[in-house]
Amino acid sequence: MRRASSILPASLLILAACSRQPAERPPVDDQIQDVAPPPDASLSTEADPQARAAAPAFSGVLPEAFPKDAPPYVPSTLVDFGEGWVELQTPDAPSVARGRYPALLRNRGWAASGEGFVKNGRTLKVSYADARPGTTIRVAY
Question: What is the pLDDT of residues 40-60, one digit of tens each?
Fold first, then answer.
């Protein structure tokens, strides 16, 4: 009985708190008018050269000995090089790079030969490594 008598006052307090009416909202003013759009609403970044996405490009300086008629893969960045080779990093997937780079080399006069390409007695050996999310392309010349 004691337990029931202590629950009853707590229940009444909760019931009283939940039954209060919400505060009244102020009446809507009939004199309120729509406002004009902000002054910059018609502005656009279309003519802003800094807002445009940069076209895919090659980033880096190729070694002097790299064949001038062998194009670097675009988009890519030169990440490493040594005597007779360079490594390029591209965000493209390996399947995309394997499809695009040989076509680019052939368009510049390089002929496919075994694992590489030849032109005027010079050879290029191209290999690809998965570097998720992109690809590392190694070109030995």
Answer: 888 887 777 777 777 789 999
Instruction: Give per-residue pLDDT as tens, 102-130.
Output: 999 999 999 999 879 999 999 999 999 99
- Please, are residues 73 and 127 in contact by the beta-carbon 8 Å criterion? no
Instruction: 99-106: list long-range contacts, CB under 8 Å, 24+ apart.
Output: 100/73, 101/73, 101/126, 101/137, 102/126, 104/71, 104/73, 105/70, 105/71
Other beta carbons less than 10 A from residue 100's beta carbon: 14
Contact 70, 108 (CB under 8 A): yes
